């Protein structure tokens, strides 16, 4: 069998395969038997008519047509083995070049190739924002707010600072075009939206806060406020906004004293010690955010500077997998993927197509990181796996640890190795991005640690 190969873009190989004459004739013999089974010939039992009778009855072209599928499938399998080609997806038949001799051409996807960028020259600064006293106070306020008790008023009274108001609220921003008729405008105002407002000066625009103070249940008021220049909603900064408010209910907010907060959040220590812990937690969270931002920026440059040759089937398979993950998430809420697709008015294939850009990005990141792992010689030792298992067990109750430890050391051991390798990869990338010197590769690799897709992609999914 003669096979001619040609390397094509997107990790495809073109195979032109010419089947040997003997193999071709054997294929026609088998095709003749199948035709004899399908269409019995007078005077012969099904499948027993000689080939020359079948060929004379149906014609040689029909015999070749019947043999074509088997000829192609069998020859393709032998060609892959003969040329020692690693295939990662189904072949596609391009054409049948000739019937006699029987020559056909197929394209097959093969593993991607990656030409890694000079990843050690990529630099990204680590920008850790300082934690301010205001940030600590806001977090403490948030914690205290979780333990506020709402109490109905014993007797009706006007709203005062500290109350929670249930209001019907509609807004109109200065400059917004209003083409609605007076009737439709009145209907819109009547509809409004029901909101919960806490009467605290630092939570509401000053004019709105002052206007709500003293209002009674059932009272309506129109309040005009000028939005501050640093308002979170950029489009309304410095603009006048008209609030149309109807008070539906008033509740008294019973806020715990600051001294009670440590006990309410199950913290053993004083309020000052709780503040110190909150600051440390915020600093740790900010450090993690900065490190993730550094990693994301580094990976973006790494992918941009790396050359990839990836078969489309690899990206599409990942897109299918991503859609399957979404399907499982929908199922938790009793919703099927078909219902979602029907609601959106798209087909399954269109949903996969929408995921292709993200699937391509993830594939490139995975491939690039796998190459970095190889280049850096990152591996995991048995001692590191054991240490990670002990760290995981520390978060569980004593009675659950023996059973969990057995699972972590057996069926979940490779997953633990992946976690360890991921940590080492993230640490190494951070060192490279900051321009720190490289450490020597590990000396005692564990068999569980290999550069898998899960390991090299996890660094991009955490935040």
Automatic annotation (TrEMBL):
Residues 175-188 have a biased composition (Acidic residues). Pfam families: FKBP_C, Trigger_C, Trigger_N. Residues 156-248 form the PPIase FKBP-type domain. It is found in: Cytoplasm. Keywords: Cell cycle, Cell division, Chaperone, Cytoplasm, Isomerase, Rotamase. Residues 270-425 form the Trigger factor C-terminal domain. GO terms for biological process: 'de novo' cotranslational protein folding; cell division; protein transport; protein unfolding. It catalyses: [protein]-peptidylproline (omega=180) = [protein]-peptidylproline (omega=0). Its EC number is 5.2.1.8. One of its GO terms (cellular component) is cytoplasm. The keyword Cell division applies. Residues 439-454 have a biased composition (Low complexity). InterPro entries: PPIase_dom_sf (IPR046357), PPIase_FKBP_dom (IPR001179), Trig_fac (IPR005215), Trigger_fac_C (IPR008880), Trigger_fac_C_sf (IPR037041), Trigger_fac_ribosome-bd_bac (IPR008881), Trigger_fac_ribosome-bd_sf (IPR036611), Trigger_fact/SurA_dom_sf (IPR027304). Residues 1-143 form the Trigger factor ribosome-binding bacterial domain. GO terms for molecular function: peptidyl-prolyl cis-trans isomerase activity; protein folding chaperone; ribosome binding. Belongs to the FKBP-type PPIase family. Tig subfamily. Consists of 3 domains; the N-terminus binds the ribosome, the middle domain has PPIase activity, while the C-terminus has intrinsic chaperone activity on its own. Involved in protein export. Acts as a chaperone by maintaining the newly synthesized protein in an open conformation. Functions as a peptidyl-prolyl cis-trans isomerase. This is Trigger factor.
